[in-house]
Amino acid sequence: MKTITIHTDYIQLDQALKKEGIISTGGEIAPYLEMHRVTLNGVPVHEKRKKLREGDVLALDGDSYRIVRES
What we know:
Layout: E1 2-6, E2 10-12, H1 13-19, H2 29-35, E3 38-40, E4 43-44, E5 51-53, E6 57-60, E7 63-69
Parallel strand pairs: 1-7
Antiparallel strand pairs: 2-5, 3-4, 3-6, 6-7
């Protein structure tokens, strides 16, 4: 499982995908969500700006990312 490190209380889904290089602009998030299976803690996600918090697990087409807060 990979990690996405945050420095605040949360990161939005579109920002997390940009940070990981999965999308390059925020405008790509809607088509990405339509074409890929994205879940947060096992629940399908369709919100572009869904807030991801420490401890959450984001799954993208089988790849998993745990949200970790750096103190």
